[in-house]
């Protein structure tokens, strides 16, 4: 009988764990390298688009995720000052904290027989590269992400508040917690001494929305953020943010990480060529990645407020999803 292929996975976030689970399913022996503890919060909006359910089912972990009691969202609201675009989501979206999601994925991978190595390592030819987004940023007004959890009345809605040079997402996750997560340029944050509570006050609608809530943890910061595709060696399988980092407001980053991770783990286990893998990922995720970069340019140009009344929320939602 043929020996199982070994698959080396560098990075044990969503893409890396999805790759490990897919490699196990394809009969390979994966090893997962990541020095980071998983029992920590990550800066993330924790909004999972509806297709994530299918992804998690395919990886065999949906039932465990469902047992965590994720929040379900049926509506979306986009606030540009006093202008609000509201719509029903085509299917319910899911709110689940990264603390829970990262944990359950890594537990499932290790429980399924993946070797976990708690070390940082260098990528090599043929490995799955799932090291997340690059951290070096060009000079200029760098963008940072921030996040916290609030307790208090939760809504079954994903809300996006666009202010002058910043935006903040508000959505429920499990256990009645509300995630508040946003992005802003360094110059704006420095002017506020990185006081994110003060930033919420810059938008009257956001201040009003968060008034009945009580902050349940300290604010976390990440960045600087670099959008787009990273140049990677061609002899490996890059997945998740290491393949391409898209603007978080699309809420499709985790779906892309799970999908490309699954495809990378399967391709590496079968020893498909990395070029064939890249072509397959491009086919599946090319359109949402392109649309996300287009919407970012619209936001950067400051014309979102003018276009908002003409762009149906459902349209924006479906264009940033994989086919
Ligand atoms: C502010 C913000 C808000 C977001 N909100 C949302 C949202 O609401 N919905 C959504 O779908 N997406 C959102 N995203 C995007 C989402 O967080 C990412 O797309 C997702 O985390 C990508 O997963 P990943 O596995 O590629 O990378 P990560 O989750 O970053 O995992 C990478 C892992 O690689 C490890 N690593 C790095 N280098 C090495 C090395 N040399 N050796 C070993 N290990 C290494 C790291 O320790 C880390 O654990 C948001 C992102 C940001 C910044």
CATH superfamily membership of the domain at 6-72 and 100-135 and 227-300: FAD/NAD(P)-binding domain
Q: Under CATH, the topology of the domain at 6-72 and 100-135 and 227-300 is which?
A: FAD/NAD(P)-binding domain
The helix fraction, in percent, is 25-40%
Average pLDDT figure: 90
Overall spatial form:
globular
**Which molecules other than protein and nucleic acid are bound?**
flavin-adenine dinucleotide
Instruction: Using the coordinates above, name the CATH class of the domain at 6-72 and 100-135 and 227-300.
Output: Alpha Beta
Count every helix, treating DSSP H or I runs of 4 or more residues as helices. Answer: 11
- Low-pLDDT windows of residues: none
N-to-C series of helices and strands: EHEEHHEEHEEEEEEHHHEEEEEHHHH
The fraction of residues in strands falls at 15-25%
End-to-end distance: 38 Å
Write the CATH architecture name of the domain at 6-72 and 100-135 and 227-300: 3-Layer(bba) Sandwich
Number of strands: 16
Which sheet architecture does the biggest sheet show? 9 strands, mixed
Which structural class do you get from the secondary structure elements?
alpha/beta
Rg is: 19 Å
Describe this entry's structure for a reader.
By secondary structure, this protein is α/β, with parallel strands linked by helices. The chain has a domain at 6-72 and 100-135 and 227-300: 3-Layer(bba) Sandwich (FAD/NAD(P)-binding domain). Helices cover 35% and strands 25% of the residues. The protein is built from 11 helices and 16 strands. The chain has helices at residues 14-25, 52-58, 62-67, 98-111, 186-191, 196-200, 204-210, 253-270, 274-300, 304-307, 313-319, and strands spanning 6-10, 29-33, 47-48, 71-80, 83-95, 115-117, 128-129, 143-151, 157-162, 167-172, 178-185, 214-215, 220-222, 228-229, 237-238, 244-245. Strands 3, 4, 5, 8, 9, 10, 11, 12 and 13 form a 9-stranded mixed beta sheet that branches. Strand 4 (71-80) and strand 5 (83-95) form a beta hairpin. The radius of gyration is 19 Å and the shape is globular. It starts with 5 loop residues before the first strand and ends with a helix. The model has no long low-confidence stretch (mean pLDDT 90). Bound molecules: flavin-adenine dinucleotide.
């Amino acid at each position: 009988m043929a020996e199982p292929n070994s698959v080396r996975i560098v990075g044990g976030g969503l893409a890396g764990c999805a790759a490990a689970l897919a490699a196990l399913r394809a009969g390979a022996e994966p090893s997962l390298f990541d020095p980071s503890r998983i029992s920590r919060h990550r800066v993330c909006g924790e909004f999972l688009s509806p297709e994530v359910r299918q992804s998690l089912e395919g990886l065999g972990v949906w039932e465990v995720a469902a047992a965590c009691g994720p929040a379900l969202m049926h509506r979306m609201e986009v606030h540009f000052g006093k202008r609000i675009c509201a719509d029903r989501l085509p299917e319910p979206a899911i709110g689940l904290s990264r603390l829970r999601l990262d944990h359950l994925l890594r537990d499932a991978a290790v429980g399924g027989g993946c070797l976990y190595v708690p070390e940082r390592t260098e990528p090599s030819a043929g490995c799955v590269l799932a090291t997340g987004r690059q951290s070096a940023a060009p000079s200029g007004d760098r963008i940072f992400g921030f996040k916290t959890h609030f307790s208090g009345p939760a809504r079954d809605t994903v809300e996006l508040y666009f202010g002058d040079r910043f935006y903040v997402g508000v959505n429920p996750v499990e256990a009645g917690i509300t995630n508040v997560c946003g992005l802003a340029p360094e110059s704006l944050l420095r002017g506020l001494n990185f006081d994110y509570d003060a930033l919420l006050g810059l938008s009257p609608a956001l201040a009003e929305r968060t008034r009945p809530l009580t902050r349940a943890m300290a604010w976390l910061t990440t960045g600087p953020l670099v959008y787009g595709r990273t140049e990677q060696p061609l002899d490996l399988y890059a997945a998740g943010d290491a393949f391409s980092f898209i603007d978080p407001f699309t809420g499709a980053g985790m779906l892309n990480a799970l999908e490309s991770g699954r495809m990378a783990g399967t391709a590496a286990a079968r020893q498909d060529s990395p070029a064939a893998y890249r072509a397959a990922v491009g086919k599946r995720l090319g359109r949402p990645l392109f649309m996300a970069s287009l919407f970012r340019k619209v936001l950067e140009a400051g014309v979102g407020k003018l276009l908002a009344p003409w762009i149906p929320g459902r349209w924006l939602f479906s264009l940033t999803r994989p086919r």
